[in-house]
Amino acid sequence: MSKTAESVWNNCLAFIEDNITSQAYKTWFEPINAVKLTDTALSIQVPSKFFYEWLEEHYVKILKVALTKELGPTAKLVYIIRMENTYGNKQPFTEKIPSANRSNLQSQEVDVPLKNKSPELKNPFVIPGIRNVKIESQLNPNYNFDSFLEGESNRLARSAGLAVANKPGGTSFNPLLVFGGVGLGKTHLAHAIGVDIKDKYPEKTVLYISAEKFTQQYIESVKKNNRNDFIHFYQIIDVLIVDDIQLLSGKAGTQDVFFHIFNHLHQNGKQVILTSDKAPVDMIDIEQRLLSRFKWGLSAELNHPDYDTRVAIIKNKLYRDGVEMPEDIVEFLANNIKTNIRELEGAIISLIAHSSFNKREITIDLARRIVDNYVKHTKREVSIDYIQKVVSDYFQMDVNTLQSKTRKRHIVQARQLAMFFAKKFTKASLASIGSQIGQRDHATVLHACKTVDNLSTTDKQFRKYVDDLTKKLTL
Ligand code: ADP
Ligand code: MG
Q1: Which of 97, 283, 353, 433 would be a feasible disulfide site paired with 422, CB 3.0-4.6 Å?
Q2: How many CA atoms are closer than 13 Å to the CA of 327, on its beta-carbon side?
Q3: Domain 135-302 = CATH 3.30.230.10
Q4: 187 C-alpha vs ligand 2 centroid, how far in Å?
Q5: Ligand 1 binding pocket mutation candidate from 142, 302, 341 (most atoms within 8 A of CB)
Q6: Which of 209, 319, 342 to mutate to test the pocket of ligand 1 (most atoms within 8 A of CB)?
Q7: Is 26 marked as a binding-site residue?
Q8: Which residues does the record give as ATP binding sites (predicted)?
Q9: CATH (residue range 384-474)
């Protein structure tokens, strides 16, 4: 049987899927289309230049292995970069980009159909003169990319943010939705993108607004009978950043007006950046048509920072404040405050304040007391890491086994219990629980919770697991 681009690519995908996390697979491989096979050269279409760069940087090895398996040692990969306007006016024009030879998998010079730059649409409703009104961006210059340290937990979101800042409205990350738990840097990153755009494109109108303030303004405008002015004001913005859009939940009027503003901006190639404390799948009381638009671009999660990133953030903060702190205290803080960067910063500030007001040296003892005070309220909330540890210990396996892909029954059960307790004892979303417990999706977590519920009513032994573990976790 002769090979087609599609059959070759499907085989590559099957191999790749087995070898990387499902999150990475979904993000970076599902959006790719195989378009052409000539001899041993496979052409694949990727959504953007950034996408292509990311693949080259992170996945070129596995791509090479997969493709060589399929097409032999002379295999070549050709990227075709497509940036399409989601509205479907696909009139590509062609541009050459220089071949990237960073990899030994030869990337060739490719024809790049780029988005057609449509002429500025005139808004017939623009209030005369409003274009001359200077709109204050409401950006905090301290929240910039330099002060936003990179780590495993934020790499995707940060890189996507940078890509958007380089070409607002010109990447497929539109909207860019940054989501993640409290204090993990959503607001900081959203500002950083805006600040960077202002820097690179001073003529662009950038506006940062919290969803809460947006809602208040909207309600005001309805009261004052100038809803249209409100809409027009937002429609002339080039880069709109709306923070905490989960706050629109249940607010039908505001959602409706935001829907129209969003469509107008998106249609005109303007950039929209959103943040939320939940993934789109976990948002409640947000209209479907709005949710589906949130998913048009890229949703990038901010996860809990790992130990090294926590240390780097602490050191950076100390450096900026011109304060020195012994290494063991930095480590102590990084070890004890794990799930919220704002709290980490708060503890550093209290520690510095205590030591300078009371003219005392910063000691481990002082640090311990402050951390105890500082994270008291969160201390009782168990972390997902802790739950996984307790469950693994209970079943005498290690956490890696619990997270592994195996279908062995006792391991699956342990994993399902960990998911169940994560849902029960933390505020994390289903998606976030899934990503922290072996890179599963929200549906898997939901299924786990139901299975545990069922089994604990029908199976005595299982009931005992649940009771034992509940005791251990709430002790
Ligand atoms: P969120 O909006 O997700 O609740 P914020 O953006 O307000 O979180 O971040 C909380 C604090 O943590 C801020 O002071 C921010 O500067 C800091 N912070 C978050 N992420 C980082 C990072 N990657 N590097 C440095 N500081 C960070
Ligand atoms: Mg915030």
Answers
A1: 433
A2: 0
A3: no
A4: 4
A5: 341
A6: 342
A7: no
A8: 183, 185-187
A9: 1.10.1750.10
